[in-house]
Write a structure and sequence with these properties.
This protein has 9 helices and 13 strands. With about 280 residues, it is of the alpha/beta class. α5 (about 165-175) links the parallel β9 and β10. α2 (about 75-85) packs across α8. The protein binds arginine. Arginine binds near residues 56, 60, 97, 115 and 165.
């Protein structure tokens, strides 16, 4: 009897789980989510899904100060402004940086804003808006460690975000300094932790983000590297998305009208090394 009761409870909870999972994840037959579903874009009133990697203050990060978790930042303000202007709703999905382009390719998101640099390699898989912000690479290390160049990193461990242009830049640096050990990690916060724990010697991070982490961690410092190759942030869309042609003019308006500068001042303040381009 006891066994039967146990069996029934198991069967019941299994059925309930299946029911709950299907109820929460209503999927169209082609596998796309039906609520706020990413489409090829186009119909105002619809909710667009923005994918981001919210580990990148002040571009995007999880704010818990209100008691609940909310993704806020420079990119989020830009996304809100543009979608509002165009009459769309906005839903933000947080994931690892490395998963953002695959999410666009699988049409699981309508656009990506993640301080993402439009590189030639990425342009093979996604379309990019105009660049809305510039940045430079820096080497973040413990104060006084004197790691100011790739040459100084010989024989040392260099943390980078997996799938970022910093990972590429580190790889290129190993052509000149083959003894650099590149350590790719998923989240920027992990990289900072590893650095503080001494498991890596330096991290390659953009100035705009590095300066925030340095003010929060006085035991760290950063040195700006000469800009090589691609830089700056743009909005990414699935290839051929009609949203690109809708977003670009609003982005340009934001830059021309001073709205972009207002947001730059709000999020980057005086510590701001780069600026919006037009
Ligand atoms: N700009 C760099 C890139 O495009 C890094 C961006 C990282 N962004 C983030 N949200 N973690 O590769």
């Amino acid at each position: 009897m006891k066994q039967l009761k146990f069996l029934l409870t198991m069967v019941f909870s299994a059925v309930l789980t299946v029911f709950l999972v299907t109820a929460c994840n209503s999927q169209a037959p082609d596998g796309t989510a039906t609520s706020g579903s990413p489409t090829a874009g186009g119909s105002p009133g619809q909710t667009l899904i923005m994918a981001t990697s919210a580990d990148y203050p002040p571009y995007e990060f999880v704010d818990t100060s209100s008691g609940k978790e909310e993704i806020i930042g420079f990119d989020v303000d830009i996304a809100k402004y543009i979608t509002e202007k165009l009459g769309y709703g906005l839903q933000i999905n947080n994931m690892d940086f490395n998963g953002l382009i695959p999410a666009l390719q699988a049409k699981r998101a309508d656009f990506v804003m993640a301080g993402m640099t439009p590189t030639e390699e990425r342009k093979k898989s996604v379309d990019f808006s105009e660049i809305y912000f510039e940045a430079k690479n820096t080497l973040v290390a413990k104060k006084g460690s004197n790691l100011t160049s790739f040459e100084a990193m010989a024989g040392k461990k260099l943390g980078v975000q997996l799938g970022s242009i910093q990972q590429e830049a580190a790889k290129t640096a190993t052509e000149k300094v083959p003894t650099i050990q590149v350590v790719p990690l998923n989240r920027i916060s992990e990289i900072i932790q590893e650095l503080k724990a001494g498991r890596i010697d330096a991290a390659l991070i953009e100035d705009t983000v590095a300066s925030g982490f340095i003010s929060a961690n006085p035991d760290l410092e950063f040195n700006v590297l000469p800009n090589e190759g691609e830089a700056g942030s743009a909005i990414a869309f699935p290839k051929g998305s009609p949203l690109l042609a809708e977003f670009n003019p609003v982005l340009k308006d934001m830059i021309d009208s001073g709205k972009m500068n207002e947001l730059v001042n709000k999020w980057f303040g005086d510590q701001r090394p780069g600026q919006a381009t037009s």
